[in-house]
From TrEMBL:
The keyword Transmembrane applies. The keyword DNA-binding does not apply. This is ABC transmembrane type-1 domain-containing protein. Coiled coil: none annotated. Keywords: Membrane, Transmembrane, Transmembrane helix.
Length: 190
C-alpha cells in the first residue's frame, strides 16, 4: 500500500510540476511581449521627437536666415551668427535626445534583467517546492513586476519627452534673445 501511495503522490507531484511549469512559461511569454511592446513604444516616441525637432529647426534655420539676409543684406556676419546659433541649438537638442534614448534603454535593460531574475528564481522555487500557493504567488509577483516595468518605462518616456521639450523651449528663448540683441547692434558691412 505504501508503495502505491508513493506512486500516487509522485503522480500528483509530477502533474503539479507540469502545471506550474506551464504557468511559468506562459507568464514569461507575457512578460516578453509586454517588454517588446514597451521597447517599440519607446522607439516610436523617440523617433517622433527627433523627426519633429529636425523639421522644426529646418524651418527655423530657413526663416531666420531669410529674415536676417533681408534685414541686413549688407552683412554676411549677421547670417553667419544666426546659422551658428541655430547649429549649436540643434546640437544641444540632439545631445538631449541621445541622453534620453540612452536613459530609456538602460532602464529597460535593467527592468528586463530584473524580470529574468525574478522568473528564474520563481522557476527554481516552483520546481523545488510544488505547491499551488507558490504558483499563485509566482503569478502575482511576475504580474507586479510587469506592471512596474510598464509604469516605469512609460514614466521614463514621458519625463524624457518633457525634458526634450523644456530644453527646446529654453534654447529657443535664448536664440530669440540673442537674435534680438544682435538686431540692435549696428550692422557692419563686410
Amino acid at each position: 500500500m505504501a508503495n502505491g501511495e508513493t506512486k500516487e503522490v509522485a503522480k500528483v507531484a509530477g502533474a503539479a510540476t507540469a502545471a506550474a511549469a506551464i504557468v511559468v512559461v506562459t507568464v514569461v511569454k507575457v512578460v516578453v511581449v509586454v517588454i517588446a511592446v514597451v521597447v517599440a513604444l519607446v522607439v516610436v516616441v523617440v523617433v517622433v521627437v527627433v523627426v519633429i525637432l529636425v523639421v522644426v529647426h529646418v524651418i527655423v534655420v530657413v526663416v531666420v536666415v531669410v529674415v536676417v539676409a533681408k534685414v541686413r543684406a549688407a552683412t554676411v556676419a549677421a547670417t553667419a551668427v544666426a546659422v551658428v546659433i541655430i547649429v549649436v541649438e540643434v546640437i544641444v537638442e540632439v545631445v538631449v535626445v541621445v541622453v534620453v534614448v540612452v536613459a530609456v534603454v538602460v532602464v529597460i535593460v535593467v527592468e528586463v534583467i530584473v524580470v529574468v531574475v525574478v522568473v528564474v528564481v520563481v522557476v527554481v522555487v516552483v520546481v523545488v517546492v510544488v505547491v499551488v500557493v507558490v504558483v499563485i504567488v509566482v503569478v502575482v509577483v511576475v504580474v507586479v513586476v510587469v506592471v512596474v516595468v510598464v509604469v516605469v518605462a512609460v514614466l521614463v518616456i514621458v519625463v524624457g519627452v518633457v525634458v526634450v521639450v523644456e530644453v527646446v523651449i529654453l534654447v529657443d528663448v535664448v536664440l530669440l534673445l540673442l537674435l534680438l540683441l544682435f538686431a540692435t547692434l549696428k550692422p557692419v558691412a563686410i
